[in-house]
Amino acid sequence: MTPQPRTSLAWGDSLVAAMLAIVDRPRWWVLSLAGFLVRGGVLLLALPIWILPTPAQLSSLLGPSVLGAGLASPTPALIALLVGALVLLTIVLLATSLLGGSVDADLLAAMAADEELGGVGVPTVPADIAATARLMAHLPTLAATVLAGSGLLQAATIELLNPAPSADSLAARIAAHVPVPLGLVVAAWVIGEAWGGLALRELATRPGLASGLLRGLRRLVSPSGLATLVVTDSVVLGVAAGMWLVLGRAFDRVWPAVLDGADPASLVVPIALLAATWVAALWLISLATAWRAAAWTAISFGDRNRTVTRTPRRAS
Q1: Separation CA 56–CA 136 (nearest Å)
Q2: How far is residue 142's CA from residue 192's CA, in Å, rounded to a whole number?
Q3: What is the DSSP string of 221-256?
Q4: pLDDT in tens, 134-144
Q5: 198 close to 102: Cβ distance less than 8 angstroms
Q6: 279-284: long-range contacts (C-beta < 8 A, 24 or more apart)?
Q7: Angle value at C-alpha 210, between 206 and 211, nearest 5 degrees
Q8: d(CA 10, CA 38)
Q9: N or C: more exposed end of the chain, with fewer CB within 10 A?
Q10: Torsion sign over Cα 134, 137, 143, 144
């Protein structure tokens, strides 16, 4: 086939090219899913099977010597528990950030070398640099969480010490007290994820953490960046919401039977169907997140190589 030059793709064509590029790239699916899970996606995917303790169970587990009068007048034991939880959370955050940074860098190098997404080819970004860029992009998320923290603590105190008569879970009742702050935290997290991914792509072509973050933010707030954020995240969230609904209903059918001590033989098929549904959901999430990553790559690198050679693609 005679090589033919092509110009950079328009925005809509870039999204289509990203979708076509991921079709025969199962390694991209795995890397995208791994990056999504270690950066917090595992918590979202576990929502359908979360069984949170009731206020009575928490009080029984911790006891009055720890809870005391609650967060309004915390005991030394409660303060130590909260500090320990914060330290553990920090360690987990740093570890998952490094792992996620390594996965993101490998995925970016593979996607940036693909001719359908721009074909520029970029050097691998070190895992620590990628993790730092991701964490710094989530400074607005941290600020939103701090601002929402007092409201969340107050709502948690109310529900633990004087729970409202409701069939909803403890988490749902706490969230009902502060819907706006929680919404801001979620919005900041979504924006931080997109900003960090774009900053990583900028760092792959030009070093400099501060300038990379600035260029990534500039690209994010551009018309094509905002449109890509809305379209791709809507797809990912739509897939996740459908998965929550299906898995939640399946789990609600299986778990009561397990608690009631049903015959193990009668649970084989329901549990197998639940596992199969979970695997299918993970596959759909991997496709959605791989397409989102490919779309950001096409938008970022598609205009950096105005004339690239079109040659037959080989499956990797």
Answers
A1: 39
A2: 10
A3: TSHHHHHHHHHHHHHHHHHHHHHHHHHHHHHHHHHH
A4: 889 999 998 98
A5: no
A6: 281/45, 281/239, 281/243, 281/246, 281/247, 282/33, 282/45, 283/29, 284/239, 284/243
A7: 45
A8: 32
A9: N
A10: negative
| 164: phi then psi, degrees, rounded to nearest 5 | -75, 145
C-alpha to C-alpha distance for 126 and 103, rounded to whole angstroms: 10
Of all helices (H) and strands (E), which one includes residue 172?
A: helix 170-177
| Full residue range of the structural domain in which residue 162 is found | 9-304
In this structure, what token pair is assigned to residue 64?
């009055």
Q: Cα 143 vs. chain centroid, distance in angstroms?
A: 18
Number of domains in the chain: 1
Task: Classify residue 169: in a domain, yes or no.
Answer: yes
227 found inside a domain: yes
CB 145 within 8 A of CB 166: no
Block residue for tokens 């074909």: 119
Give a yes or no: residue 314 inside a domain.
no
Task: Look at residue 64 in the predicted model and tell me its pLDDT.
Answer: 56
Structure tokens at 55: 């206020």
Q: Does residue 189 form part of some domain?
A: yes
**In this predicted model, what pLDDT tens digit does every residue of 162-221 receive, in sequence order?**
666 665 666 677 777 778 888 888 899 899 999 999 999 888 888 889 999 999 999 999
Instruction: Determine the Cα–Cα distance for residues 239 and 221; give it in Å rounded to an integer.
Output: 25
155, 177 Cβ separation under 8 angstroms: yes
Q: What is the pTM of this model?
A: 0.76
Partners of residue 292 on adjacent β-strands: none
| CA–CA distances in Å: residue 92 to residues 40, 96, 101, 127, 171 | 11, 6, 14, 16, 22
Write down the residue that tokens 């792959």 correspond to.
204
- Give the containing element (helix H, strand E) for 188: helix 179-205
